[in-house]
Amino acid sequence: MLQYSEIAATRRRIAEFQLFRPDSIDEACEILAEAPEATVLHAGGIDLVNRLKTGYAPGRIVALKAVERMQDIRIFDDRIEIGAAASHWQIENHAGLKISLPMLPAYVAGLGNIRVRVQGTIGGNILAGEPVYEMLPLLGVLDAELTFFDASRRSWFKLAARDYRRGPTAPPFLTAITIPQRSRSVIWDRRLRPALAMVLSLDWDGDMIRSGTAVLTGDRGGPLFTSLPADRLSRSQAAANCADIAADWARLFPSVDLPSGPGPDYCRHVAGVMLRRALQNCLLPS
Amino acid sequence: MSETISVSMMVNGERRDAEVPVALMLADFLRDNLRLLGTKVACDQGACGACTVLVDGLPTTSCLTFAFVAEGRDVTTVEGVTAADAVWDAVQQALHEHGAPQCGFCMPGLVMLSKGLSMQPASAEAAGWLNANICRCSGYEVIRRALAPWIATRGIPA
Ligand SMILES: Cc1cc2nc3c(=O)[nH]c(=O)nc-3n(C[C@H](O)[C@H](O)[C@H](O)COP(=O)(O)OP(=O)(O)OC[C@H]3O[C@@H](n4cnc5c(N)ncnc54)[C@H](O)[C@@H]3O)c2cc1C
User: Fold this and answer.
1) Can you give the CATH number for the domain in which A205 is found?
2) Whether complex ipTM tops 0.90
3) How many domains does one find in chain A?
4) Which residues does B contribute to its contact with A (CB < 8 Å)?
């Protein structure tokens, strides 16, 4: 007779591992430093467990659930600090964030579905290294900084979110994400996701656009950040010449390709249309 | 010898303690150790939601959650929403009255997903909440109709 376990059994093929459950960041760092190559972190576990099911066998797993400090969200006058193990659900429903940086909970509320947001964490989303995952583009335009512990060197370092790219080996230990408090407009378009998605950010100096950044992501790669030369355009000038500005900016985009799409030129055109729409939305009187 | 770990959690209001392999999934703990067979596993990748249970009131994908993660927490399965006298819960009753179950495989997960709705603070998101789970018979329209009153109240019983 066919057993239930044979029908849906990939999870039963997970190789044995040694489990560690530290309750502080220091303890987690110590465990990682003992065997950096053989140890991986389990935050929400969505990506990690799916990888374990396909035969990935790291040997040692450090569960971050009990490290309460890594789930903290703290708001200061000049910055916001988010623990890397804060769940999407926590961010989406955080009363302080809804006031200080409302775009972040609003953006996170659109990720995946409720089960993914309850289980998945902001750190796991970044460090899974999947080009279609959406936290890195937003954190990049928000000028967020990532705080890492490098277990092999036993040293701490910081990196701008927009410069982080996951390599082939396990990533360093991300403990926190720091976002400076600044006034800016951020708008996103995920309607063509996972093929193509865009985040546009404009930094304002009063009524002038100080600078702009657009980020493209898709399942062929990303995030691709492009700085947009705003040259202190006023809101009214930009609104009056929106289509031309978007067309000029779109020429700066790196080559993007859609899966089985008609080629990079077409994709650049689509990205240009998305940019024009996003710009129009940003410039609408609030 | 396989590495084991002691777990202790509340399941449907009862305390359950066990020594389990570290790699045991919550879905298997519920089904194999506790014989709570209402929780189903279909895609085994966290996409379909058939294995949804509530952990501390929130919908959780039990095929992607190690049993040790539920340590000290409150787990509710579909068996836990039916009263001891086998009277259906309001969500189950609504789905039944609308003839929503076809093959029925997604129903336990869908019931649990709907029950979790009372945790949703913003009513604007309530409808999107139910998009999380897949019905392989594609009976979405009837499911949506059956659950509309539940969605309208965000699952908060009157
Ligand atoms: C059905 C489904 C739909 C989804 N839809 C979307 C979507 O629309 N948009 C989107 O952006 N994402 C989406 N996702 C992805 C989801 O957001 C991620 O899977 C989730 O955020 C990963 O977080 P986690 O905590 O579970 O990661 P884990 O699985 O715990 O970790 C992922 C990886 O990062 C490593 N890691 C975790 N934390 C750390 C840390 N602090 N330091 C160093 N390494 C660490 C782990 O070792 C592992 O390699 C979807 C996923 C699913 C299953």
Assistant:
1) 3.30.390.50
2) yes
3) 3
4) 2-3, 5, 21-23, 25, 27-28, 31-32, 41-46, 49, 52, 58-61, 63-66, 68-69, 113, 116, 120-121, 125, 128-129, 131-132
